[in-house]
Amino acid sequence: MEIRAEAQRSGTVSSVALSKLRMSWILATYRVRAPRESLEGIAHALALEQSVELPDAAVTDAFVREHVMGRVDAICPGADDVHTVTVRLAVATTGLDVAQTLNMLFGNSALHPHVELADVAFPPDFLAAFPGPRFGLDGIRARLGVLRRPLACAALKPQGLPSARLAALCHTLAANGIDVVKDDHGLADQAYAPFAERVRACQVAVVRASRETGRTCIYAPSLVGGPRALAAQARIVRDEGEGAVLVTTALVGMPAFHELVTRDLDVPVIAHPALGGAARIAPPLLVGTLFRWLGADAAIFPSFGGRFAYDEATCAAIAHRARRPLGHWKPTLPVPAGGLTVERVADAVRFYGADTMLLIGGSLLAAPDVAARTRAFADAVARGAADAPAALANA
Amino acid sequence: MEIRAEAQRSGTVSSVALSKLRMSWILATYRVRAPRESLEGIAHALALEQSVELPDAAVTDAFVREHVMGRVDAICPGADDVHTVTVRLAVATTGLDVAQTLNMLFGNSALHPHVELADVAFPPDFLAAFPGPRFGLDGIRARLGVLRRPLACAALKPQGLPSARLAALCHTLAANGIDVVKDDHGLADQAYAPFAERVRACQVAVVRASRETGRTCIYAPSLVGGPRALAAQARIVRDEGEGAVLVTTALVGMPAFHELVTRDLDVPVIAHPALGGAARIAPPLLVGTLFRWLGADAAIFPSFGGRFAYDEATCAAIAHRARRPLGHWKPTLPVPAGGLTVERVADAVRFYGADTMLLIGGSLLAAPDVAARTRAFADAVARGAADAPAALANA
Fold first, then answer.
1. In chain A, N or C: fewer CB atoms in 10 Å?
2. Cβ contacts (< 8 Å) between B273 and chain A: which residues?
């Protein structure tokens, strides 16, 4: 009431608008590379850049200064001229829109090479305004009928094969113990395997394999394109009865991803990190928190020790953030990938725990006997369940 | 014909699909940080990662090896372990879709911190498949009736002000010589100035100013949100008769940007670089080439010497790429910004040439007399025209 009265006194915002205003704050934390002596000035400039985008002296309106302008919440000087700055950003500035929230978190500052977005803490009213994952970890388990052990995921590739050969590979993987067979995210709507034809053929293959084995396997086609293409692909997915989809968040854009998930899809969504993954947003924040915010039911990320450079701490933090309690949001299923092999399954399960889906792509398909290698993967996942910790020990 | 016969022999792709296949190649150039002795292996891995995403030995299909798998085109070793690698990527893999093209150019490799996307050369058939800017530099000039001098652009801010105050500011800027008044990209659909209300008020203000002065000023509202919100905002823009719009490419996502431009808008589009601008794609490629590919008629970028760190060479390269001949694509109007002041206008015009729109934001609004400062800006732009080079000397 005090805030409202003050704004009404200053005559800047109508009471109707005010009643819709959220007066809470997001805490955004940045890693800033700067000489120690200029850190305070840079921190203040960062708070202005990410809110009013004006010099302090030019912000003369009392309401804007009090309730819209970002403020420095904390400055933690670090070693080697790399420091941590936390800024308070008004929830009201986001309009509770995904694109605009990204703008407030890391719009212009993404143009500053000395700034990285390290972490974000959303207040309860912001969390409450977004549904989070609709199925989440438990929803995916329920669809598969697998309640305790880790899950096994494999990928259809390479692109360039015709639909019939991808479908045959899909059957081999499904018939030999894979829980979720996903398209490589490089499979799009290319001439050599058009989307509708490929998706139909692979779904038929996976249904046939499930009937033969008596166990459920889900096929997740990759959706990619502009908003209209995505909506059309979502209709095909619905008509064909696929059990999940793969969407590369940064390729389609985060707002389009969120809208697709919440408005056009009624199956679990697996998020892929390509393109945006290693931009200047910390991977645990991007994959573990922001993908979950956008509604990802499962999130793929490059695991340590493979062909990508994420270290153990980063991977543990991604998995922890995907699954930890956060508002009313369901946990997201972590999907470590990127160079995993059958030989490393036991270690991966010990590291990530049972509430994990392991994705092995190329190394299954490079084997002389793909079916045998796939069975070995499924067996390793089942064996791994025995000594998997209930929760991630090192998170 | 030889290609087609070969693929038919290998039995992998139908002749119908083949007839739609484009057999040309995109040249993608990456900056790679690596020890010299491992460079060749890394270059080969990069070509695989950005195409088939499989180890070489696992790519057994003859058609895929020949026409889909990426190949190293050139390796140029550099100093300090930073090298240049050019890879050939098949146009067929893109499906001529924006999202999938981004995937092929810089999907998984964006997860490798040692790799940056430095440059792209599109072949003629790829260029021909995309319309590029619909209005471009000359189309914006024609709308303003200003054929030779540099253009002056200003921004409405800060967010937090109600629509009426933003509209009053819009009138002041329009009445004192600004050609294009744009929303700050932080103005979205917030409670304190809802999109429809703000856009209507500002358009009324700009029309009134144009009537009073007898010269044309265009108001460009900022569109931001998910695809459905963008489409709704585009409808309002059409109904209200705005003369241009501002869209932040990376916030809405490049595929959504392209679809909005080509399907939903019939006015020039000014692209803003926030969020994605300083990711690991070289700024001249991102702003000068890719934004133009997506259909941006004008492109904002942080000019040297302001509060961002782009140097003169980067800025010259952005402007050059925006305007140089490229397929049938119209030139994009370069819009240097980010800390420009009235005092620096003459230098900026000498540097960028007359086919430029200078954007001064905060420093106009921080002036004690905004109207006088705005007139000084417009005068400086008009004076600058006299000694502006016809083309960018140092590009």
1. N
2. 111
Please tell me the distance from the alpha carbon of residue A65 to that of residue A58, in angstroms, as a whole number.
10
Answer yes or no: do A309 and B186 touch at CB < 8 A. no
Nearest residue to B301 via CA among B332, B271, B337? B337
For A384, the token pair is 């791994």
From chain A, the residues in CB contact with B58 under 8 A are 158, 362, 365-366
Nearest CA in chain B to A50: B186
Residue B132 and residue B327 in contact, taking contact as beta carbons nearer than 8 Å: yes
Strands A115-121 vs A25-33: parallel, antiparallel or unpaired: antiparallel
Which helix (H) or strand (E) segment holds residue A203: the answer is: helix A195-213
Cβ of B93 within 8 Å of Cβ of A159? The answer is yes
At position B137, the amino acid (one-letter code) is L
Name which of B190, B272, B340 to mutate to probe chain A: the one with the most chain A Cβ atoms within 10 A of its Cβ: B190
pLDDT in tens, B51-102: 999 999 999 999 999 999 999 999 999 999 999 999 999 999 999 999 999 9
User: What is d(CA B44, CA B50) in angstroms, rounded to the nearest whole number?
Assistant: 10
- To the nearest whole angstrom, how far is the Cα of A390 from the nearest Cα of chain B? 29
Nearest to A251 by CA among A279, A280, A276: A276
Residue A157 and residue B53: Cβ atoms within 8 Å? Answer: yes
- Residue B112 pLDDT level (bands cut at 50, 70, 90): confident
The amino acid at A40? E
For residue A254, list its beta bridge partners.
none
- What does A137-176 look like in DSSP terms, one character per residue? HHHHHHHHT--SS-EEEEEE--BTB-HHHHHHHHHHHHHT
**Lowest mean per-residue pLDDT among A323-332, B1-10, B231-240:** B1-10
Cα–Cα distance, A7 to B132 (Å, whole number): 46
Nearest chain A residue to B277 by CA distance is A111
Residue contact A14–B59, C-beta within 8 A = no
* Residues written for chain A: 395
Least confident of A301-310, A382-391, B293-302, B361-370: A382-391
Residues 6+ apart with CB under 8 A from B21: A191, A192, B13, B67, B92
Amino acid symbol at B361: G
Which of B156, B252, B251 lies closest to B198, judged by CA? B156
Q: What is the pLDDT of residues A12-68, one digit of tens each?
A: 444 444 444 557 999 999 999 999 999 999 999 999 999 999 999 999 999 999 999
Judge contact between B30 and B85, C-beta under 8 A.
Answer: yes
Closest CA to A232 of A191, A202, A188, A276: A188
How large is the ipTM? 0.88
CB B193 within 8 Å of CB B187: yes
Helix (H) or strand (E) holding A82: strand A82-90
Spell out which residues of chain A touch residue B67, defining contact as CB-CB under 8 Å: 160
Check residue B136 and report its DSSP letter.
H
